[in-house]
Each structure stands twice: as structure tokens, then as C-alpha cells.
Batch of 4 targets.
Target 1
Amino acid sequence: MNIGQAAKFSGVSAKMIRYYEQIGLIPKALRSDAGYRHYSQPDVHSLCFIRRARDLGFSVEQIGVLLALWHDRDRASADVKMMALSHVARLKAKIDELQAMAQTLEHLADHCRGNDRPNCPILADLAESIAAAEQPPLTSRRTPRFGVDTRASSRSSSR
């Protein structure tokens, strides 16, 4: 089948199929006398495998390893399970990050009046991170002294 048909059956775009060939994730397709790519049923199965792995969030590098394991009938399923569980741990960490981001934005939005006034805690929070980035790093290695070097003391002394 040609690249369009392979794309349709696998759910992988023709552009991505060419990319996967280019980076060596899948072997180069056989070519017709006219130079058109020709894909076999096993090629399309590999593309379906890649599509499913991408849907599950695996990186291209991880998919390369998974494909090699899939084609290796002497492999231990423990290797595959270890990869999957490692990926699950990364996904859960990313979920935690995203939930923390959502909670922060919800908190900021709850404190924004959303009126026609320019005061906005959301923008103030974003600008605060800019100000923090502009602060020079502390170069001394001495232990901060309470009442002199702490944030609380600098706030009270400026009043």
C-alpha cells in the first residue's frame, strides 16, 4: 500500500511516517519503479504500534526501545513492565505538577476581582517571578542571621 493508505490505516500522518523513516524508527519503505513508497502489512502494524505508544505518552526514543522489545521474541516481559512502570511514575509526577499549576491559577483567579480596574493578582504574581529572577544570587556562604538577613526582618525594617 502507498503512504496515504498506510497513514489512513495506522492513524499516523504521512508526514510523521516520513519522519519516522528519516530518524530510523521504522525501516525505509520499499520503493516502486516510479519511486513511490510501498508499505507491507507488518509495516502498518509497526505504525499502529507507534501510534498507540504515542497516545500513551511514550517519547520517540522510548518507542524505539519498545519496538525493539516487541520484535525480540526472546525478551523478558519484565523489561517491558519496568519501562511501563517507569513511564507511569513520570506521568504521575507530571499530573502532580499540572494539578499544582491549576491550583495556583485557581487561587490567583479567585483573588482577581475581574472588574474594569487594572489591579490583577494574576499579573502581579507573574511579575513577581520576573523581579525574583532579576535579583543577584547570594554569593556569600555564611549562615543568614535572623533579624538581619531574613525576609521578615527586611520587611519590618523598611516600615
Target 2
Amino acid sequence: MKSYAAQQRKPTDYIVAIVVAVLAMGAVIYALMSGAVSKLVQEKPPIKTEVIKEQPKPPPPPPPPQMEQPPPPYIPPPKISVPPPPKAVQRVTHVKPPHPVPPSPTPSPEPVPAPPQGPPADAVPDHSAGARPINGAQAVYPDEAMEENREGHVTASCDILPTGKTANCTIVSSSGGHEFVESALDFLRRARYQPAVVNGAPVTEHHHVLHIDFTMGDD
């Protein structure tokens, strides 16, 4: 049997044994925990943080080239030949006045010589007044009638003076319009004719008939 002293020390031994066991268990647990933690630390490396810079966006692709349509081929306009307008033709004709019939000769006394004078008005001319103006005057074709391709005819009766001028002109007949009459009268005022001649001297020829024809032609 144990002694009393030994029995009295027994609780203390129990306590010490318990404390030692607890410490041993704590050491074991600490060792285990330390190993596990270190293992976890070794297995999981630290997370590295890195700032990612935003990459610039690439420029948009260029648009596809547009095919330009070639211009249409040049077609020269057709040549149009415009014939020139027909030239106006003016023809001026005249009609010789009828020659007066000389009276039948009858016996008469010898005439008394008279002083020389100009030829009598009813004397038969050696030749009548000329048919064309000697100063180159021409009748003017009216513009309005030419544009409308109208023709006209004017017949006038004039006295041809010894100077070749016309006087006392009257219109015998006309056709085509009043423009032709006005142009014909203007032409007759400007015209100068070779006067009629009697015995070598110019005389007045009365009622000299002139025809002014306004016609369109190529000549």
C-alpha cells in the first residue's frame, strides 16, 4: 500500500500530468496547424496585380474605292447646212408711149420764119427715154415681204424730164402689198434716166410707163 504522503501527492501529479498532456497536445496541434498553414501559403502564391492599359482602337478600314463611271463618248452634233436666202431680183421694164400720128399734109402758105425755140411737146422723139437708170439706182426689196417670200409687181407712169429725173409719177397697178408700192416710188425718185431726144436735144417724155417687178430668185 502506498504511504499517506504518497497518497497526498497523487492529485498534484495528476494535475501536472494533465497539464503536460495538454501542452503536448497543444504543441502537436500547433505543429499541425503551422504545417498546414505553411502548406497553404506555399500552395497559393500571392496574387499579382497589374494595371492593364487600354489598347487604342485600330482606325476604321478605308472605304472601298468607288468606281467612277467614264463620261459618255462625245458625239459631235450633226452639221446642218442652211442654204442662203434667195436673192431678191428687181426687174424694171418700160413701155414706149405710142408715137403721135402726124397730120396729113395740106397745102399751106409759106410759114413765117420764127425765132429758134425748143422742140415742140408733141414732136416725135428721135428715141424715147432709157429703160434703166443711168445712176445705178436699184429698188429695195421690202424686208417683211422677203421674210414671207412674197413677190410683188408695180406699174407706174412718170414723166421723164430733160435732166433725167422722174416727175408726176402715178401708180397704174400693183400687187403684193403696199410695201412694194412704197419701195417702187422711192426707187423712181432716186432713179435718173437717159432722157428722150428730139432733133438732138433732150425733151420731156410724158407718161413713160415703168414696170418694177419684185421677184425671188437665185440670180
Target 3
Amino acid sequence: MKSIELIILNLEEVRRRNIKLWTSIPKGTLHWKPDDKAMSCLEMVRHVLDSEHYYHLSIKNQGSLPVYESPFEKQPLISVEAELNFAEPYRRDFLETIISFSEDDLSNIKIDRSNIGYIRDLGDMLLRIAYHESVHTGQLLDYLRTAGVPRISVWD
């Protein structure tokens, strides 16, 4: 398996497990949050989806965006399904962009986010995107534990 294929597999596997988790959240818990400064469960789902779109654009830009207007902000927070449906074309474009890269691109293309403290190879950046989503998976599992909601196993 080539590096690009492994990166796609990792991104798809992380998302598959998240969809399993996200769709298991009871409707009455979607707007729960552990404190007033935290994101709600549904806001966290949106954050993951919107962040992926931002990361996609920053990869295409080879660095941070000077201005980012989120297409997600104008959408009402209704349900996990609505969020996933809205994000689907952005996700498809993101994966198509990754598939378009060569193996050499993974180490030769630099993503300059020095404004927040780093410059990374494209391959590193793509792995960081999956890691970001995975961190929020753990955070959301903790939310559900704290709220006393049964959690599904993401370890299938």
C-alpha cells in the first residue's frame, strides 16, 4: 500500500468510527456540554467537520488562510445527520485533493502555519488532521461518560 492510500485509509477509518459515535448520541444529549465555556456535543461534531474544511483550504494554500469564512456558520445546528450531509461535498473534495498528490509531494510540499508555530510537510499535516479528529473522539467519549450516557465501542 502506498503512503497516500494509507493516509486516506486512516482518515476514512477515523471518520467511520466518529460517525458511529456521533450517530449514537441521544437527541436529548446533542446540546449537552460539561460547562458554559465548552462546546456542546453537536458543536464538537461541527467543529471537526468545519476544521477539516479549513485544513483542506490551508493545504491548497500551502499555509494558513488570511481570512476564513466558514460555510458551516450559516447553517443551523439541527442534527448529526444534517451536519454530515452538509459536510459531504467538502469531505469528497478533500479526499480527492489528497488522492491527487504524489508520494514525493508528501515530503516536498510544505504547509506554512508559522503564524501559529509550525511549518510541516504535507504528509505530516495530513496525519495531524486525522489526529485532531481523533482527539475530539476521545473528548466526546468523555463528555458522554460525564453526562452519564452509555457509550458505544469505537473499537470494532
Target 4
Amino acid sequence: MDHITTAGNAKPATKTRWYKQLYFWVLTAIVIGILVGWLAPTAGIAMEPIGTTFVNSMKMLIGPIVFLTIVGGIASVADLKKVGMTGLKALTYFQIGTICAMVFGLVAINLFRLGDGVNADASSIKTSDSAAKLIDAGQHQEWWQFLTHIIPNSIVGPFVEGDILQIIFIAVVFGIALNAMGKVGAPVLDGIQRLTGVMFKILSFIMKAAPLGAFGAMAFAVGKYGVSSLTSMGGLIALFYVTSILFIVVVLGAVMAFLKLNIFSMMRHLKEEYMLILGTSTAEPALPGLMRKLEHAGVKKETVGLVVPTGYSFNLDGAAIYLSLAALYIAQATNTDLSIGQQLGLLAVMLLTSKGAAGVAGGGFIALTATLTTIGTIPAAGIMLIFGIDKFMSECRAIVNFTGNAVATLFIAWWDRTLDADRARRVFAGEIVEPMPTEDPAHTDDVADLDEDLAEYGHHAPKHQAEANATSTTDRRPAYSETV
């Protein structure tokens, strides 16, 4: 975000030159990774630890950042009913968005029917060991399990396992309890907000290695899977990409137009996050940056803290398109005829099974298998027909999921009548704007350092004058609201 922090008198902000920005170096690393994986596959495969180490280091921060942001947002609001209504509105929007995405997928595969002529015999399809485990997990996946899964067995477990849904549950309960304590809980809230700054400081350190992580992940992907598998299933991959692009432009673009915002300006503003997703094939490393940029664009902190993490589990537009396309492709390839009514029934089941696999490794295949098992008419072993090309669609899924969550957060903020659309428009256009009141933390000197680090992350910040950094602690605004 074009983020500035005022601490006394600050010098005018200047944008970082393009060749010094993170997205340029990540994009360069991706290109180099593709070349290494293509020209030297063995060397590319050997780069896997570099990519996985970076992604794991980012995932390490996701849980604490989500927890601290949600707790800080809920504990600092005066009316908890508004938080509850925001959550209900978000879940309603998520379901509508998921339905639209699935309908897009169903229409696309019905129009082009790429599975016709494959004539696959489900009984003769060989299943690999890795796929067999996913199929088994999907066959034992019940639609209601995501409800019981939300409540963790321990407080520490979700942070160790990286289970976002359970972390959200703990954070909401903790935030409500802290809010109910009033001024007694103010020192704890102050500590929560200071810890949030620490987490983003750590984030700024890790982000310096983003180009290296993108290089390792891309070199491994190309080296291991190559480009030869694109030829046999190129039609399905192309259809998925085209359908996803149309969904972003038509559906998400229409939502942004309704908000009097431009989808392409927003995407350009989030270019650093898109480069991370493209390089790592997952949207998780981009979550912290999205939260900070949306807050700076005029969305209230509590709205961002609640909607964005929840959307990462419940608002998966890209996964929804993929599930509907894949299920109908398998049906066509195995000569399983489905009526319109059966396809709508398939969509209804997917709305539930997709939530059941949220946040689980191989969740897309587990959700697909659970859907096929529940319907009973499409052979679950048919997922082997698309198992080999899943990697080539993961980046697109993650990008659509990420874009859908950004748009969802803006829409929910508008629904709550808290969106500053004019500010968002200016921020997305690249203008330098004053920070939001909630962006002023307790330690202005710490934030100066954080902003300088995040300038490489696409957050263009001015350096503070020495006298501003020397401001005494007693003059600083408390990090908590007296009306808690």
C-alpha cells in the first residue's frame, strides 16, 4: 500500500523506483526459476527446499497475525452486535459468491464438454498412493464436519497445525471476553496491538527473501512436472483459466463497479501480493499484505480482521470454479450422464463439502471426492484423470480466491456503511494518502522502522524526522480506546 505514517512533521513521501520494488524482483525470480526448471530439471527439483522453507516461514506468521488482528479489532469496538452482523453478512456474501463461481464452472464445461470422447473406464483406472489417501479421506468426509471441526481440542493446537478456522474461533471468543472486561482489559489490548506490530516487523524481515522463495518454488514445479503434461490436458487447463478470468472481470468486476471502484486498479495496487501467489502457488503468504493494504484503503480494522481470514476458508471462488469444472469433466469422461437437476444437486452438495475440506492439505481433491461419493453417480476414482494437471491450475485458483476475498472485504465494508470509497479509489490509483486513525500505533519510532522495511514490500513510506522519533512515550496516544 502507499502507506505513510505521520509522527510530528514528516517529509513528503516518494515512491520507490520500480526496480527496487518487491514485485519486480519476485517476477524476475519466477522467470529465472522457470528457465532453470525447464533447462535443468534435476537442478530445478533440487530447489524445492528453498521454496518450501519460504512458504513455511510465511505460514508461521499467519496464525499469530490472524489471531492478534481479530482480537484487536473485536476488543476495541464499542458495539459487539456490529461485529456479529458483519460476520453474518460476510457468510451470506461468501455463499452467494461461491454459488456464482460454481455456476460459471458448470456453464463452461457444459458448453465445451471437453470430457466427451475420453471414454474412461472407472474400473480400470489405476490410483496412485498419494491420490488413494485423498480419495479415502474424501470418502469419509461428511458435510457437517466443518462445523464440529471449528472447535479445537486445545488452544495451542490450531497454531501448531496452522488451522485458520480454529484460530478464528479462538480469536473471536478471546476478543469478546477482552471487550467485556472494559478498562481492566485495556493493558492486555495494548499488548495485543504492540505484538501485532512485532509480527509485521518479523514479516518485513521474511519478505526480503520472497524472490528467493519464488525462485525455488517455481524451479521445482517446472522441473518436476515439466510442460509436457500441459499438452494432453491443455484444453481443460485453458478452459479453467478463461473461466476464471471471466469470473473476475464479469462478476467481481460488477461488484467493484457497484462500489464505484475499479477491479483493475485494485489488482494493480495488490501486484506485490499477486507476484507472491504466482511464485508460491498459494495465497497464504499474501494474507498479511492484503489485510494491511485494505485497512489503509479505508476498510475498518475489525472488518478486515474478521472478513479476510474467514474468507480464506469460506470464500474460495477459484476452488469453486475448479470443483464444478472437474466434477463435470469426470462425469463426461466416464460417460456418466447428468441431468440439469442432478447438476444443481451436485452444486448444492459442493457448497457443503468444500467447506468441510477448508484448510486441509489436498483439500480440493478431498472436497471433490466427498462430493462424488455423496452424489454416488460419478466414480470417485475418476479424479485420477485430472490428478496430474492439478499443479498447473493451483496458481489460478489461488489468484481468484485472493481477488474474491479482497472484493468481498470491500463489499462487506460498504454493506456496513463504513467503507471510504473515495479513499479506496485514491489509494488504488496510487495516490499518497494520510494514514487511517487506527494505523497510528503506540510506538511511532517502531512504526518508522516498520514502514521503511515495508517500503520494499510495496508500502512507500517517508522517513520520519529525528525529532518525531524522539517524541516521549508520555506524549504518545494510547493504543487502546477508553470506550472499550
